[in-house]
Amino acid sequence: MTAASVSPTPGTVPPGTPLLQVRDLNAYYGQSHVLHGVNLHVNPGEVVSLIGRNGAGKTTTLKSIMGVLRSRTGQITFGGQDIARLPSHKVAARGLAWVPEERAILGTLSVKENLELPPARSGGWTTERAYEAFPVLRERGHHPGSKLSGGEQQMLAIVRVLRSGPKLLLLDEPSEGLAPVIVQAIGRIIAELQREGLSVLLVEQNLKFATRLADRHYVFVDGEVVDEVRREDVPARQADLLRYLSV
Ligand SMILES: Nc1ncnc2c1ncn2[C@@H]1O[C@H](COP(=O)(O)OP(=O)(O)OP(=O)(O)O)[C@@H](O)[C@H]1O
Q: Per the database record, which ranges form the ABC transporter domain (predicted)?
């Protein structure tokens, strides 16, 4: 293979190129048109949040990026390469990992089996690393996934996808319904992952959690991005952000 034919590895994109770029994304459930020209990007090493009220289109955006929702138009590039036409398993193979709101874990298998099946890819998180990050998972190693608390299931869902060694982690409301101490533990891991160079696209309704972690925020209203707020502007824009989220 010649050097020219080698695909650029996502994460080693030329300086200034976003890791993920979404342009003019429109998405549909049957006749229902729910995303109306969404534009957003995530730079290498950034944590970016999507915030907005229930039904604003945040989850649909993640599903569209992952190729789980196929009924959509627009451009989606990862590492500068078009991924909009790829089936979801090929999107995942490029280095995107999605933790859905419903926390996809294998409920009948033990925590340990959840962490070992299939085996971690090279460069991905090992079972030992998962146990170091969340020691409670070691203590619960032989419990079936379905018997874990909501917080333990969220931790397990996150470390499961990290076993593939992704470049971009898509998290859908990781703090939802969890006790403050668990939310803090998950926040610490997200910050640690960012320090290691992982990029994160985070859907959140918990503004405190989102503003503590994210470098930038996209505000969704009725299937559109209506505002973008940088970390340094959050204090001055706090009232606007609260208004966007209030029902
Ligand atoms: N499977 C579906 N079939 C039809 N409509 C759907 C489906 N899933 C979501 N919708 C609709 O699409 C719109 C966007 O929903 P989406 O779940 O993306 O919003 P969200 O911002 O993630 O909010 P939430 O936090 O409630 O999930 C809403 O009007 C919702 O009712």
A: 20-247
